[in-house]
Specification:
Shape: globular
Strand content: 25-35%
Distance between the termini: 103 Å
Strand order of the largest sheet: 7-6-8-9-10
CATH topology of the largest domain: Rossmann fold
Structural class: alpha+beta
Radius of gyration: 32 Å
Length: 680
């Protein structure tokens, strides 16, 4: 006998199953699934699996109870999923952002964040790249950083979400030591145990030479053993609805703080001070264990950095109560703490002793904070102001500089928005360059100190590779998107007037032009598009007479050639040509109409520029899997390497008086224009 023979007509049974399947589709709503996942595959699979599960259970008479359980489970899940969707799309202002991904024993920033934190005390943009590393507004979020010189580890004080990227102490360190890549891996809530896990499982892959650990007297000496992420933590990380329900239960709102501000490690409860407050002289088994754990994890971190060939530098950040007598008096009065029961130098003495035992470099920031005589901390929020970040950068920078040769390079850029191709005017009083603004590349002119920038172009088209005429009346540049391979060479007055294309044919294109010293000619790479083959010709070097408009080919186009520049006496051109899939430097002599190969290396050369007297070429070369600067003596053919960093240096040019080399650099997440002394 089958189920139908018990008195239920076949049509009724089918109708019931159909109704149940339709109800299941309503519960596992494909529209809701797609809104949450943005995945067509999951949108198809989830309802299909739900319907098939109900169908399978319905087909078995003995599984009727399972059918009920399944449907109720889908219904409960549906309520949760619909609530999540309504919150995300209907009430986005109530969504509590999740900024972190949970790893094994530590946290990281979520990739591709773009948030604006607004508080009564501060406003700051918080953006991250695809690796979860914090970036500025001008950075490309898809850029991957593979290595670093200095890795900075810490909690929310290091993270610095209250200030802009440019104002972080790590960014200021990068400006002071421009030939170093400095990565900030500070994450809110990390303790020393978490920070050890972060380095041991993640940070070491960047191969830092120096690991800087920023420790806070605020709360780093309590609850040192890392707390493992719970099931609730992981659900909260993925669900805005659960975060809304549980955040108030798990985290204290700052308006509920006893003094209206954060005061850790000081507590109103005497027992909590005994258990956790590092300044409180009365001890407890909890406090002893925390201090022992602190030294254990500091030892582990030191051993881990040493095993990877890096050095460890520890810096101790004071609390407000250590530098502000009024704040200390307020805490002791309102919390009824006997001031004689406090040792306000205890964390400093503890850490000084631990680092001495381990032979680890130590910077006590307390004296610098006391001497600063500035507003170091926000009034309610315990984190550092812009001034506080500057004090930390100065103190750590002074310590490092006292123990190594200072960098000869100097960062000129004021904003980190992808400045490239700097070049002095003939009198050395101005610098032209390109910079990424408002979503595209524009041209700028600044004074010799890179101050008072004047924007020369402002539209939705990319302008790049600026070259200023000798009399500083005109500028020539590349216009258009480089990736399209259909850029134009454009010339205009410095005022923006008389703008015209020099590559005027429908299928004529060009890039990276420069003026001749007499302003009578320009040179650039030119190519065309063949409609019949739908291919582009190889870029070849041409010289154009600005008066007659006559264009003279210099190279024959059999090899791809770029970046031509005139010698100061206008007798030669130097450019790069691609031979056997690799770029080398070549020169062309106008008097003999002959070409000479200047370099023959197993790596690319790029960006040649003459010295003012024409005796040397400065250029970039990809010699050690990154771009460095080199200097070629054209008489002796001797080459010297000018830079040897983990970053990339390119776009060099030499000042008219021969004293400085301007160049652009990319050091991790920082793109800027720099200067360095010309070697003597």
């Amino acid at each position: 006998m089958n189920a139908i023979s018990h008195g239920e007509r076949p049509s009724v049974a089918i109708e019931k199953r159909l109704i149940l399947c339709l109800a299941t589709l309503l519960v596992v709503n494909p529209v809701i699934v797609f809104l949450l996942t943005k995945s067509v595959v999951i949108t198809i699979l989830a309802p299909t699996i739900a319907v098939l599960s109900i169908q399978l259970s319905c087909s078995q008479p003995r599984l009727k109870l399972l059918t009920a359980y399944l449907f109720n489970a889908f219904a409960l899940l549906s309520i949760f999923v619909h609530a999540e969707t309504i919150l995300l799309f209907g009430y986005p202002n109530y969504v509590i952002k999740n900024l972190y991904t949970i790893e094994d024993g530590y946290y990281l920033n979520k990739p591709l964040l773009d948030e604006r934190f607004v508080d009564s005390e501060y406003e700051a943009t918080y953006r991250t790249n695809t690796q979860g590393l914090r970036i500025s507004n001008g950075h490309d979020p898809t850029r991957i950083v593979k290595t670093t010189d200095w890795l900075v580890i810490g909690d929310s004080f290091t993270q610095g979400a209250q200030v802009e990227f440019e104002e972080l102490f790590t960014t200021r360190l990068n400006a002071r030591f421009p030939d170093k890549i400095v990565l900030n891996s500070g994450i809110s809530g990390l303790g020393l145990g978490n920070e050890y896990n972060l380095y041991a499982n993640y940070g070491y892959v960047y191969e830092p030479n120096l690991v800087i650990l920023l420790v806070g007297s605020f709360n780093d000496f309590m609850n040192v053993e890392p707390r493992r992420a719970s099931f609730t933590d992981r659900v909260m990380a993925h669900s805005a609805f659960v975060r809304l329900l549980l955040t108030d239960l798990r985290f204290q709102d700052d308006i509920e703080l006893p003094l209206g501000r954060w005061t850790e490690p000081f507590y109103s409860n005497p027992l909590d001070n005994t258990y956790y407050n590092v300044f409180y002289t009365e001890s407890s088994p909890y406090k002893k264990q925390d201090i022992a754990d602190f030294k254990r994890y500091l030892t582990l971190l030191n051993n881990a950095t040493a095993s990877h060939g890096a050095q460890l530098l520890v810096a101790l950040l004071p609390t407000r109560e250590q530098i502000d007598a009024d704040a200390l008096e307020e805490v002791t009065r309102e919390f009824s703490i006997d001031s004689t029961a406090l040792d306000m130098r205890r964390p400093n003495d503890l850490l000084e002793g631990m680092t001495a035992d381990l032979n680890v470099a130590f910077v006590d920031l307390l004296p610098d904070f006391i001497d600063a005589n500035k507003k170091i901390f926000f009034d309610r929020d315990e984190h550092m102001t812009i001034a506080g970040h500057q004090v930390v950068a100065d103190a750590i920078g002074n310590y490092i500089e006292s123990r190594q040769e200072p960098s000869t390079a100097r960062m000129l850029s004021r904003q980190l928005v992808g400045d490239r191709y700097p070049m002095f005017s003939n009198d050395g009083m101005q610098i032209t360059y390109q910079s990424f603004r408002d979503g595209n590349m524009e041209l700028f002119l600044a004074d010799s100190s890179f101050n008072k920038p004047k924007q020369l172009t402002a539209d939705s088209v990319d302008q790049s590779h600026p070259s200023l005429s000798r009399d500083a009346s005109r500028i020539i540049f590349t216009e258009g998107l480089a990736e399209s391979f259909e850029t134009e060479v454009v010339i205009m007055d410095l005022s923006g007037a008389n703008k015209r294309e020099l590559t005027v044919g429908d299928f004529e294109f060009g890039a990276i032009p420069t003026f001749s010293p007499t302003n009578s000619q320009v040179t650039y790479a030119a190519w065309s598009h063949d409609e019949r083959s739908n291919n582009y010709t190889n870029p070849q070097i041409v010289v154009r007479d600005l008066l007659s408009g006559v264009v003279k080919p210099i190279t024959d186009g059999r090899s791809e050639s770029w970046r031509p520049v005139f010698s100061p006496d206008e007798r030669q051109l130097v450019y790069i040509s691609r031979i056997n899939n690799q770029y080398d430097l070549f020169s062309y002599d106008f008097s003999t109409a002959s070409e000479r190969r200047l370099t023959k290396t197993p790596f690319d050369e790029w960006d040649p520029q003459f010295s003012p007297n024409g005796s040397h070429l400065v250029y970039a070369a990809h010699a050690d899997n990154n771009w460095d600067l080199f200097l070629l003596n054209l008489k002796t053919n001797i080459t010297i390497q000018l830079t040897a960093t983990k970053g990339d240096e390119w776009d060099p040019s030499i000042s008219p008086d021969g004293s400085l080399i301007l160049f652009a650099g990319q050091f991790g997440l920082v793109d800027a224009v720099y200067s360095m002394p010309y070697p003597r």
